[in-house]
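queue> pop job 88
queue> type: inverse folding (structure -> sequence)
queue> payload:
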């Protein structure tokens, strides 16, 4: 049985074909990639054209089938792994009324503060509303980048669009709607709106009333393993697939990257570094660390949660340093060769990876990247390696915050585009001071999780936890203790780059 999983990212879409069977379970066969534009606005807005996602699906699907020699009738189902906390306002026909507001969109600060920065406060948030959130969702909407505030920004700033809105969808939900005509949302995506009643598995009337959300704008809910419909003839023609092909919900990238990495048991830790990044730990209960803005979210497995700490820009920082500092047209392999002899600590240079603000363990849209401690001997290779180290140091900070609450397994799994480079994997192990494992096809880990979930949907695997047995470890990296000692000394300095410059960030970037 061949299936296709679409991994809908921030700047590109991966279309991956898998074979699923009772014997081999999930086998990656082939994939294609398409890129699209991320529109960064001066007012803090970050937008995407939802039709770009669909067009990328269409081009890559047709190319995948042609290159692999696969007949469209061989594809027995499609599913999704997607960016989430995206706001797509659509009319009754499912047509977007404006460009989608990305998870990175930070323009709704007024809407956030108007609701959450009133009354008696804890960590700067209204304590009465915090308690309501905790009782119903187990987490708190503590950032202006969260979806509800963007929805309210549209209400306040684009009233005509708001009046014409039929549903508010996330990225994946828009694509399943365009594929099937049905508007439904998976529970993990619903949870990320902070409007989801975890105990009763439904939208919360209490929280919607508290924020002023029109519940008629919220779609019905489903599980990530559910079939949401069949591929419509028009959609099938555009994608090059057979009409009537089953379409399954899938889930968010955070949920499915953990599944695709085999991090499905309690204490399993995934460090993911793509355009953005996160540290996700599989836990058995809801918990909110309000001080560090880390919370447990509903995942694809109804018996566990994803305790997620995010960083806005991760691999994007590495792309930035290559594009801005490299004057020789190096590819990534050449960049690694260029910096390979740079010692741990980059000859004293420290970099902060907050290139578009940050979420955890502090939420500050004004924070930015900093190169610290340059001198006249600093080389381009020092700057390049410092960027890699800065991303890894931030992941260590997030992991330490996680371990304040939950025990974690001693071996960490590392995935995403950054995990393709053995050099970066070794730096990650050195910075974390613990063994780091990589899996096959680390760039396709989200799509792998979606395909593995289809194996459960089709009854080929009895349970989501059985997925761990079929995920193969590709390599393991052991920390070099002499390097870890260097990073132990740098880490306090790295953390202080934010605390010591918070006011300066605000002075330079407030209102941008």
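queue> result:
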């Amino acid at each position: 049985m061949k299936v296709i999983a679409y991994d809908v990212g921030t700047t590109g879409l991966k279309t991956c074909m898998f074979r699923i069977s009772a014997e081999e379970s999930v086998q990656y066969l082939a994939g294609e990639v398409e890129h699209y534009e991320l529109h960064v606005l001066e007012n803090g807005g970050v937008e995407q054209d939802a039709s770009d996602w669909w067009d990328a699906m269409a081009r890559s699907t047709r190319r995948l089938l042609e290159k692999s020699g696969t007949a469209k009738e061989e594809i027995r189902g499609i599913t999704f792994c997607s960016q989430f906390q995206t706001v797509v306002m659509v009319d009754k026909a499912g047509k977007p009324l404006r460009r989608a507001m990305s998870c990175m969109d930070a323009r709704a600060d007024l809407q956030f503060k108007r609701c959450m920065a009133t009354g008696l406060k804890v960590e700067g948030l209204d304590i009465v509303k915090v308690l309501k959130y905790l009782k119903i969702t187990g987490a708190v909407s503590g950032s202006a980048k969260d979806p509800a505030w963007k929805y309210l920004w549209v209400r306040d700033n684009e009233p005509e669009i708001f009046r014409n809105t039929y549903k508010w969808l996330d990225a994946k939900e828009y694509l399943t709607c365009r594929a099937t005509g049905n508007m439904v949302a998976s529970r993990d995506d619903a949870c990320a709106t902070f409007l989801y009643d975890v105990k009763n598995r439904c939208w919360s009337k209490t929280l919607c009333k508290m924020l002023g959300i029109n519940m008629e704008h919220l779609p019905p809910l489903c599980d990530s393993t559910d079939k949401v419909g069949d591929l419509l003839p028009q959609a099938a023609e555009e994608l090059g697939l057979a009409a009537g092909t089953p379409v399954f919900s899938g889930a968010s990238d955070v949920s499915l990257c953990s599944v695709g990495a085999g991090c499905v048991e309690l204490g399993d830790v995934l460090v993911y570094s793509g355009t953005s990044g996160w540290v996700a730990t599989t836990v058995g209960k809801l918990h909110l660390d309000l001080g560090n803005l880390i919370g447990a979210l509903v995942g694809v497995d109804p018996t566990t949660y994803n305790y997620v700490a995010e960083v806005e820009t991760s691999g994007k920082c590495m792309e930035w340093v290559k594009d801005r500092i490299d004057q020789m047209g190096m590819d990534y392999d050449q960049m690694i060769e260029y910096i390979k002899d740079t010692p741990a600590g980059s000859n004293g240079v420290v970099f902060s990876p907050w290139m578009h603000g940050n979420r955890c363990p502090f939420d500050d849209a004004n924070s930015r990247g900093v190169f610290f401690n340059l001198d006249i001997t600093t080389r381009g290779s020092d700057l390049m390696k410092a960027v890699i180290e800065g991303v890894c140091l931030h992941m260590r900070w997030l992991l330490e915050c996680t371990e304040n609450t939950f025990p974690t397994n001693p071996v960490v799994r590392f995935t995403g585009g950054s995990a393709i480079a053995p050099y970066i994997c070794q730096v990650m192990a050195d910075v974390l001071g613990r063994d780091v494992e990589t899996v096959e096809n680390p760039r396709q880990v989200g799509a792998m999780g979606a395909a593995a979930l289809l194996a459960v949907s089709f009854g080929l695997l009895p349970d989501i936890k059985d997925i761990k047995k079929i995920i193969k470890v590709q390599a393991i990296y052991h920390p070099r203790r002499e390097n870890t000692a260097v990073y132990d000394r740098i880490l306090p300095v790295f953390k202080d780059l934010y605390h010591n410059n918070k006011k300066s960030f605000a002075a330079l970037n407030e209102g941008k």
